[in-house]
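About this split. The held-out portion is used to measure sequence recovery: a designer receives only the structure tokens and must propose an amino acid at every position. Recovery is the fraction of positions where the proposal matches the reference. Here is one held-out target exactly as it appears in the evaluation file.
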């Protein structure tokens, strides 16, 4: 199971880089069309066709990256905290938080400097939000989120060992309630007074993401029973997976038509979140080895460093292509391929160079 989850980490970081590269592909189509001649237009993106369905479907699948990270983390924190006292657990957790914080602060600072060089500015309150809430760039929310989950993990793990089903149901309820506010936002609906209490769930990602961390812990505690149960119904699980993939695309088009947006990040949709849960379970249940996975497992061991650094790297690559090779912007698949390759290969190369530097601490500080 350990190697399988390490492989999942590797797959997840590749999907994360792809998901964030999609943003630049959509940006090119919607706003950079004056730089190239291509059939890839905003109108093509808005309507169901082979091109738009490819982007939508692959982006929907790639959005499983953070849920997969949380699931793997939940499993391994269950393993690490098992049979430990609260005091021992928090000593272990303290070290893990430091391990996460130093690279996070470094890369957040790099992004802040980059934005300032672009002509941006930050107030003191904005800088506080950058470091406390992960607002250096969109995907950086993950670090404060996982730290919150790590902090509550000793108590959560003990609750899961006693009441696994109740904790899963509570996590699913919190996830569902947090999703309602997303629908209000997408549909530009002002909630009535009865729904104002839902604003609580907009204040933190923990409500919408707790479920996958919990599922990882529950799998560790009850893995034999869970795997045995789902192996009996694995083809039904695969059927549900395909159904929710299809429903996710229908929902995308419906929300796009109603809102007037040609692109929607549907990762917050309740249908897509269910799809992610089924996708993770399917990965756990189905065959142990489909292909030679050693390279992806290696990437999985470097996933945290890649996650923090790839955001700025693919942005710089996209902007360079805009100025130097604009015709590539209209070749969406090639453009995506360059961004994904750069977003993984450049961090790995930087890690390799860091290891060769005389100061060995540089590597752990920058990459974790």
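Reference sequence for scoring:
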């Amino acid at each position: 199971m350990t190697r399988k989850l390490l492989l999942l980490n590797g797959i997840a970081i590749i999907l994360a880089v792809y998901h964030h590269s999609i943003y630049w592909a959509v940006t090119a189509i919607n706003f950079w069309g004056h730089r190239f001649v291509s059939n890839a237009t905003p109108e093509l993106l808005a309507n169901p066709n082979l091109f738009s369905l490819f982007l939508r479907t692959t982006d929907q699948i790639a959005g499983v990256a953070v849920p997969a990270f949380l699931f793997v983390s939940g499993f391994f924190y269950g393993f690490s905290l098992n049979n430990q006292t609260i005091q021992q657990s928090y000593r272990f957790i303290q070290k893990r938080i430091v391990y996460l914080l130093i690279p996070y602060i470094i890369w957040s600072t790099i992004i802040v400097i980059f934005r300032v060089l672009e002509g941006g500015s930050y107030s003191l309150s904005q800088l506080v939000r950058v470091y406390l809430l992960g607002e250096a760039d969109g995907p950086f929310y993950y670090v404060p989120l996982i730290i919150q989950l790590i902090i509550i993990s000793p108590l959560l793990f003990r609750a899961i060992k006693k009441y696994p089903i109740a904790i899963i149901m509570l996590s699913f309820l919190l996830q569902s309630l947090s999703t309602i506010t997303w629908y209000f936002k997408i549909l530009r609906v002002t909630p009535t007074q009865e729904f104002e209490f839902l604003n609580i769930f907009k204040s933190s990602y923990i409500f919408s993401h707790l479920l996958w961390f919990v599922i990882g812990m529950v799998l560790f505690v009850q893995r034999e029973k869970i795997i045995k149960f789902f192996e009996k119904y694995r083809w039904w699980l695969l059927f549900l997976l395909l159904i929710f993939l299809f429903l996710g695309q229908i929902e995308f088009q419906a929300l796009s038509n109603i809102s007037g947006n040609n692109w929607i990040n549907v990762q917050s949709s309740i249908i897509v979140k269910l799809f992610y849960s089924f996708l993770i379970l399917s990965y756990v249940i189905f065959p142990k080895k489909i292909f030679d996975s050693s390279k992806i497992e290696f990437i999985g061991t470097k996933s945290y460093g890649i996650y923090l650094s790839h955001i700025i790297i693919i942005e710089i690559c996209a902007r360079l292509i805009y100025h130097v090779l604009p015709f590539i912007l209209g070749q969406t698949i090639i453009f995506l391929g360059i961004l994904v390759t750069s977003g993984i290969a450049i961090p790995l190369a930087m890690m390799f160079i860091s290891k060769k530097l005389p100061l060995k601490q540089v590597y752990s500080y920058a990459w974790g």
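Annotator remark: The chain has one domain: 2-172+207-367.
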